[in-house]
Amino acid sequence: MIQLPQKHASTGTSIFAIMSGLAQQHGAINLSQGFPDFQIDEQLSTFLEEGVRLGFNQYAPMPGLPMLRQAIADDFKRRYAVDIDADNEITISPGATYGIYTAFTAILQPGDEAIVFEPAYDSYIPNIEMNGARAVPIPLTAPDFTVDWNRVKAAITPRTKAIILNTPHNPTGTIWSKADWDTLAEIVRDTDIAILSDEVYEQLVYDGATHYSVLQHPELRQRSFAIYSFGKAHNNTGWKMGYCIAPPTFTQAYRRLHQFTSFSVNTPAQYAIAKHISSGTASPVRAIMEAKRNHFLSLLKNTPFTIHKPAQGSYFQLATYESISDKGDLEFAQWLTKEHGVATIPVSAFYHNRHDDKIIRFCFAKKEETLEKAIEQLSRL
Ligand code: PMP
Ligand code: GLN
C-alpha cells in the first residue's frame, strides 16, 4: 500500500458535508449548510443562456473576463467609493474557498504562523496547515463574539505572517466596526503581516448597518487580500464563482499560483455575472435576506430555542438550547436531524479543539415555506 504524505492530517470531513448528508439520509429540512433553496434571479439565468449562445464557451483570460473585472471595479466604486484597477488588482476565482487557499499559499511558507479568530470558517486552519504553516487560534469573546485585541497583540511573534478575518462573520453573524479595523492597522503597522479579509457576506448586513471593507482602509489595503464570493451575492453558490482583490504585487503572486492550479474560470458564468452586475436591475439580495432573517426570528419565538442576539449580517442565526437538552452541540444537532427532521450546524465544528458552548447555527437563506415547515417541527420540541 502506498503511504501518501499527511499534508492535511487535521482535516476530517467538513461539517457541511456531514450535516447535509445526514439531512438527506433522514429526509430532514436542511438549515445546516449555507445555501439558498430558492431560484436565482431570472435575468441571471437568461444572461447565462445568452453567454453560451453568443459563444462564450472557451477559456477566459487567466485573470478573468475584462468585462467582469470592470463590472466589479465599477460596482465597488459605486458601493464603497474605492478605486480598483480592474487589470492589476482583480482576479476571478472558482469560489472564495479557492481564493482563500490561494491567498494563504501566496503568503505562507513552512514554519510561518497565521492568526485565526475562532469560531472560524472550517477551511482556514486546514489551508494554513496545507502550506506547512501553523494556525494560531484566538477565541472571539462571547456573548458578542468581539475581538480581544490584547490577545491578538500577545499572539504576534516574528513568525506571524498572516491574520485572517471574516466580516460579516460566519457563523456568529457579527460585523466589524471601523474601530476594529483601526486597531488592526495599529497592531500590524511596522510588521510584515499580511491580512486576508474574507468578505463573502459583504452585501448581507442588516438593520441599516454598513459593511466596512478592508479596501476602504488605505493603510490596511496595501497589505491585504480581500476575498469575495458571487454565490452569496446572487444566491448561486453552486456556480462556485468568486474573486480576489489585492494590490498589484499581491495580485501578481496570486496569479502566479492561479495560472497553474486553475488557469481560468467558467466563461459563460463570468459573462452572465458581468451583465447581471452591470444591469442595475439585479434583485436586492440584502433586503430579501433581511426579510428572511426577520421572519425566521419571529418564527423562532414559537420554539424553546434561545436567541441571544439577532444576526447583524450573513445568512446565519445562532441559538442555544439549554431548555431542550444538555447534550453537546454535535450530538444535539445529530439528534435534532434524526428525531425532529431539522438539520443545523454545531458551532463546535468551527473551533480547532471542538470547544463546545452548546450553540447551533441555523441558515435562514431559505424559502418562507421551508422556514415555516422547520419551525413547525421545532415547535413540537
Ligand atoms: N468564507 C466563508 C465565511 C463562507 O461562509 C464561505 C462559504 N459560503 C466561503 C468562504 C466559501 O465561499 P465559496 O462557496 O465561494 O467557496
Ligand atoms: N459556507 C457554507 C456554510 O458555512 C458552506 C460551504 C461549504 O459547504 N463548504 O455553511
From TrEMBL:
Residues 29-378 form the Aminotransferase class I/classII large domain. InterPro entries: Aminotransferase_I/II_large (IPR004839), Kynurenine-oxoglutarate_AT (IPR051326), PyrdxlP-dep_Trfase (IPR015424), PyrdxlP-dep_Trfase_major (IPR015421), PyrdxlP-dep_Trfase_small (IPR015422). Pfam families: Aminotran_1_2. The keyword Kinase does not apply. The keyword NAD does not apply. SUPFAM superfamilies: PLP-dependent transferases (SSF53383). Keywords: Aminotransferase, Pyridoxal phosphate, Transferase. Gene3D superfamilies: Aspartate Aminotransferase, domain 1, Type I PLP-dependent aspartate aminotransferase-like (Major domain). GO terms for molecular function: kynurenine-oxoglutarate transaminase activity; pyridoxal phosphate binding. GO terms for cellular component: cytoplasm. Its cofactor is pyridoxal 5'-phosphate. Belongs to the class-I pyridoxal-phosphate-dependent aminotransferase family. This is Methionine aminotransferase. It comes from Flavipsychrobacter stenotrophus.
